[in-house]
């Protein structure tokens, strides 16, 4: 667990406030921290993801998904179990240790539960993506994504006048392994996000990537290309509605 007086683990680089990590090219607000967790922490989390009971995985057409602590029922989290320790430490503790501004201690201060209570784990082999979508009304409008294993581009889209999706992304964010991306505000409500199902991200440059100046290793992408490997993402959110009934049902039908 991170404590305010403990020296940070080697290899991580946490800003004094989120403002230092703001992606200036995007509408308010998005933040990118390249070295949010260490290589050792990444390995430990990957090991937990890979050794989770098989029943935890839901297989979709091109990717697999775990939902912690449980699926939502009618946009409600059945409050059966808290998030496991390996999803809380160090990620949530560290996230909540970063001030948003002088007046707000952290990004989840105004959210109903003051911290994320739900995590989706997506596994993307090279060639897999996720269709452009919005995250909807079940969550407080802050999404925190920790990337593990490989880099890829998240695309941001807008709808055309007639409501149809404009297929050309308005912005692209490059997410490196061990990074944290936070999106909120207009990026939650107004724009869609998605990942192209391609093996190689191309045309990567200072001009085309919104967070280029915040990357850990822009030189790795100097040729404009990113060959994808297996990438795991952990997406942290605060589900607005939590049902106490869940704790009673949870005791009767315990998940693996
Ligand atoms: O894996 C990602 O970075 C994006 C996941 C996503 O779009 C979602 O969980 O809604």
TrEMBL record:
Locate the Fe2OG dioxygenase domain: which residues?
A: 115-240
Which keywords accompany this UniProt record? Answer: Dioxygenase, Iron, Metal-binding, Nucleus, Oxidoreductase
- What's the protein called, per UniProt? Fe2OG dioxygenase domain-containing protein
Q: Does the keyword Oxidoreductase apply?
A: yes
Q: Where in the cell is it found?
A: Nucleus
Domain of life, per UniProt, equals: Eukaryota
One GO cellular component this record assigns the protein to is: nucleus
Give the residues annotated as coiled coil: none
Q: GO molecular function terms here?
A: dioxygenase activity; metal ion binding
Q: Which family does it belong to?
A: Belongs to the alkB family.
